[in-house]
Amino acid sequence: MASKDLRIHLSKNHNLIKICLGVSALLIIILVIVLLIFTIFKPRNPTVSVHPLHLEHFQLLSPNSSIAPLGLVITIENPNYASFKHGNCSGYVKYRGIVIAEAPFGARSYPARSTTNVTTTADIETAKLINDPNFWSDIAGGVFNLTSEAKISGKVSMIKIIRLKAKIYLSCGISLNITAVNATSSCMSKLKL
Ligand SMILES: *[C@@H]1O[C@H](CO)[C@@H](O)[C@H](O)[C@H]1NC(C)=O
Ligand SMILES: *[C@@H]1O[C@H](CO)[C@@H](O)[C@H](O)[C@H]1NC(C)=O
Ligand SMILES: *[C@@H]1O[C@H](CO)[C@@H](O)[C@H](O)[C@H]1NC(C)=O
Ligand SMILES: *[C@@H]1O[C@H](CO)[C@@H](O)[C@H](O)[C@H]1NC(C)=O
Ligand SMILES: *[C@@H]1O[C@H](CO)[C@@H](O)[C@H](O)[C@H]1NC(C)=O
Ligand SMILES: *[C@@H]1O[C@H](CO)[C@@H](O)[C@H](O)[C@H]1NC(C)=O
Hints:
It is a single chain. The chain has helices at about 1-40, 125-130, 135-140; strands at about 45-50, 65-80, 85, 90-95, 100-105, 110, 115-125, 145-160, 160-175, 180-190. The protein has about 190 residues and is of the alpha+beta class. It folds into two domains: about 1-40; about 45-190, Immunoglobulins (Immunoglobulin-like), CATH 2.60.40.10. The longest helix has about 40 residues, at about 1-40. The N and C termini lie far apart (about 65 Å). The structure holds 2-acetamido-2-deoxy-beta-D-glucopyranose (6 copies). One 2-acetamido-2-deoxy-beta-D-glucopyranose binds near residues 177, 180, 182 and 184. This is Late embryogenesis abundant protein LEA-2 subgroup domain-containing protein. It is a single-pass membrane protein. It holds the Pfam family LEA_2.
């Protein structure tokens, strides 16, 4: 009797070990899949650059107009495996911390792992510049520096299944060389889920 009891007991334990091993293996597989998803789909910040358009025709100060339209091409490289979509929004162009123009951009989407060019026009309010003594010394120095900022609210979506709210924070420095009539820019971006 006693030995039969022991056998039943042992075989029960054996089954328990099998279940334990099975569950552990399953957990490990789930863990590996989750880690894989997080490394592949880990949100990465977009790479952004700004290029002023037609600088040769750009007239910051014209006698008749209080507004100087500056065309801008914003190149946005989305490195993620998810697309990003936003509605109407605006960026702001600042000179020495003061907003001198708003640059609107309409609703659009940025496909996964692709580069998109967005064009916009910043209507610079020249009155805000000509009253600033720094402006005249910058012009005399041949360099006109601007910064631009945007906070873009939208949605990221992955394989049309996962949809999450996201924000992109953009901040660029644009340096216009007046004598060479060209510009350089450097941008920072942050994608927040
Ligand atoms: C500026 O205004 C003057 C007179 O109001 C006009 O003759 C001239 O054509 C205008 N210039 C431009 C660039 O619009
Ligand atoms: C977005 O902007 C365009 C042009 O400014 C306008 O026609 C449209 O109604 C706007 N859409 C929304 C949802 O505000
Ligand atoms: C975006 O614009 C840049 C410079 O204007 C150009 O070199 C590039 O080919 C454009 N890319 C796309 C995807 O249109
Ligand atoms: C303009 O920006 C450039 C590049 O960021 C910088 O090297 C330069 O010192 C700035 N000049 C002025 C007048 O702010
Ligand atoms: C602007 O361009 C001129 C002409 O190419 C160059 O001599 C000068 O060093 C440039 N200035 C800056 C701040 O890059
Ligand atoms: C700006 O123009 C100057 C002179 O034409 C050139 O040497 C320089 O490489 C240009 N810089 C950029 C960023 O295009």
